[in-house]
């Protein structure tokens, strides 16, 4: 018994003795006490599970639509959902419904939201009942390609098994075809293709990477392209969109950006775009810049003897670096 | 040590059960620890028989002090000691008698510490209007017990004709609760109670 509770109980005891409250009130208090201590325990467990279990489609769609930019991607997702719904309805009416193959190809530069969207799609499909678990397994070449003969198929099978009921997301998928004729990457592709056919209802395969490389990759492996009915292009964010993203990130972390700092951020983003092109990093660059500035702000403030609330939440111009380095 | 509390409305047979149950578990004398309403503790040793004649009566609010008794309960192959608490009856509202108010406050305080809650209801008086008829406070105890876990209802006085009828009512009314039909007087259902207690010892 905690001392706080002990005090409460003693107090209630006294009230009862003096006849100020009914016995029922005392008991009610105990009930509430027991319940709150219980619910607090349960809540932690529940929150974890409920978040995964009882997500409504609307909530996830809302989350998707809150993402900045990505208009094409959003309309594509709507299209897919409509398609899925109609195919399900057709099946219910006994009409010929093409089986739902939802393997996808995501093309776009780093930091354009491919993984974020994939993760959301997993949850959307789960809410729609298309996937059992809706989780996302992110793999790369090293996870799929083995070191000796026969090793590759084993590794691929292992990853597919983990991805069952969810999405298997292969980033920089073209790296599978990189190694030339004798590379085991080809074997990995073959194993993947076979698994896609065998378990087409049980998991979704998403291949992701730079647009150009992906196009080449698909050209070299013509059998692949036809097996991925959905292609989504992730365009680079405009600088304005990146600033919006920055605002959102800053807000999430309970900071604000001063006006001149925002102007500097704009400059940094623009010059990066010109100098580094597609490797500039898009939203990821924004995140890195902001996280760095938050650290710089902390250093700047640590010398100050007294910080106001404003000091604590404002990121100033000098907190932002000229570049990433 | 597990604290097992016996509570319910006045005159449902808590003390009879308390003493008969002790006898059933092979005690022939009991060391009772009374805490009276001034908070003083006194320890008295009685033979069960003497205790019965001294403590049990057919008038309500006979027990005003919380009585403690150490019992050994067989658990698996060994035995474990528990403390069984017999308490004064609980009723709704504010009683005009201070000693009854204190007795109830004591009971509730002990309820808070208890690990195992045995809630006794007089099954024979469900359809009568007596002090022992179930009322708001029983539902509250039920709510509290269910949220605590180790909780059961004893539908007492099952040996009486009206008892069986009352048991059916209780089963309907407290669907989520384990209900043991008992008769404190005739030692019916004691085995189930013993099992229930040993299952819930911490």
TrEMBL record, chain A:
Establish whether keyword Magnesium is in the entry: no
What would you give as a GO molecular function for this chain, any one? ATP binding
- What domain of life does the UniProt record list for this protein's source? Bacteria
Task: List UniProt keywords, sorted A-Z.
Answer: ATP-binding, Nucleotide-binding
One family from Pfam that matches here is AAA_lid_6
Question: Matching InterPro entries, A to Z?
Answer: AAA+_ATPase, AAA_lid_6, ATPase_AAA_core, CbxX/CfxQ, CbxX/CfxQ_RuBisCO_ESX, P-loop_NTPase
UniProt domain AAA+ ATPase: residue ranges: 100-238
Similarity comment text for this entry: Belongs to the CbxX/CfxQ family.
What's the protein here called? Stage V sporulation protein K
TrEMBL record, chain B:
Where is the G domain positioned along the sequence? Answer: 4-155
Q: Does the keyword Transcription apply?
A: no
Work out whether the entry's keyword set contains GTP-binding.
yes
Keywords, A to Z, come to: GTP-binding, Nucleotide-binding
Q: Which GO terms describe its molecular function?
A: GTP binding; GTPase activity
Which PANTHER family does its entry note? DEVELOPMENTALLY REGULATED GTP-BINDING PROTEIN-RELATED, MITOCHONDRIAL RIBOSOME-ASSOCIATED GTPASE 2
Q: What is this protein called?
A: Small GTP-binding protein domain-containing protein
- Organism for this UniProt entry: Anaerovirgula multivorans
